[in-house]
Design goal:
Layout (H helix, E strand, L loop, with lengths): L2 H15 L10 H25 L18 E10 L5 H15 L4 E12 L2 E11 L3 H14 L3 E11 L1 H27 L4 H33 E9 L9 H9 L1 H36 L4 H12 L1
Parallel strand pairs: 1-5
Antiparallel strand pairs: 1-4, 2-3, 3-5
């Protein structure tokens, strides 16, 4: 196929891939040929990768085809510890992470709540190098036991990203080959001006797709390289139910109930005491000073007339 004919077809590939507007009846044939050209580009990229062998590099970066399973792991640990000991244990776990270095462990989030009475909870979110995650989890458990904590939750979840990584890498290689062909056509300056303009737009669109694919690929590989780890801290023990459970709850909240009662009495005294003093002063003044009010006099005059 001549370069002058390739240019509009390659541009049509990019415009159709980026969700361009509907093509006219006269452009349907161009769309079909563009699809054939895209298939040829993908086939050429696959052949080039096969000839160079596994882990072949591409023009815009050293992106290797994933062969081994690429699994992103998520770890969850839970510890029951006294409310007063949660901040200390949480701090010890955070310092353990920092001692490993940023290349092995990173702190994402640290939070605490409660701290009143026997209720308290905490949460620590980390990113740990996948190869060290299991060992790091064991260190967390030993450190918690030394602080009086009991393990109450342990879970490991894995998500296989192998297919997504392979598909993204394949698409990325095909788009890079397509971009290189478009750039070659632009450098040769063959074809009409309108065709060259379309080719430039195609280059911009394919570069955007390449950037997006590289971003997805970096995110997935980052999830495989660093495992998410969530550590929960809780105080108290779960309720066992039964006849004594309500009694246990009332006894446990006796201090709160007593405090609320005293607070109510104090509030009542604050409101009622000034009013009571004011009424007493009025009555005392009436008795000692002999104050008389007009409506009292009217009542007495009416009684005498009757």
């Amino acid at each position: 196929m001549q370069k002058q004919a390739v240019t509009p077809f390659l541009a049509a590939i990019m415009l159709s891939g980026c969700g361009a507007a509907e093509q006219s009846a006269g452009g349907n044939r161009s769309f079909d040929i563009a699809e054939e050209e895209a298939a040829e580009v993908a086939a050429d990229a696959a052949d080039a990768a096969a000839e160079e062998g596994d882990g072949a590099s591409v023009p815009s970066g050293d992106i290797k085809v994933a062969r081994a399973p690429q699994i992103a792991y998520t770890y969850r640990y839970g510890f029951r510890v006294d409310a007063s000991a949660i901040p200390e244990l949480q701090k010890a776990h955070a310092e353990l992470c920092e001692s490993k270095g940023a290349q092995a462990c990173r702190i994402l989030n640290l939070s605490q709540s409660g701290g009143e009475g026997d209720y308290a909870s905490g949460r620590l979110e980390l990113e740990v190098a996948a190869k060290q995650a299991r060992g790091f989890g064991e260190e967390l458990g030993k450190l918690a036991e030394s602080k009086g904590g009991d393990p109450i939750e342990t879970s490991i979840e894995g998500e296989d990203l192998s297919k997504q990584i392979v598909d993204t890498e394949a698409r990325l290689r095909a788009r890079i080959v397509l971009r290189d062909r478009l750039m070659e056509i632009l450098q040769n300056r063959s074809g009409k001006v309108s065709e060259l303009v379309e080719a430039e737009r195609g280059v911009a669109a394919v570069n955007e797709e390449i950037d997006q694919a590289q971003s997805w690929l970096a995110e997935m590989k980052g999830r495989v390289a660093f495992s998410k780890m969530t550590i929960n801290y809780n105080a108290g023990y779960p309720s066992g139910g039964g006849f004594f459970d309500p009694i246990r709850n009332v006894l446990g909240s006796a201090g709160t109930i007593l405090g609320n009662t005293i607070a109510f009495l104090i509030g009542a005294v604050i409101v009622v005491f000034p009013i009571a003093i004011l009424l007493w002063l009025l009555l005392w003044s009436r008795r000692k000073l002999g104050w008389r009010f007009r409506f009292w006099r009217k009542d007495k005059a009416a009684n005498k007339e009757s």
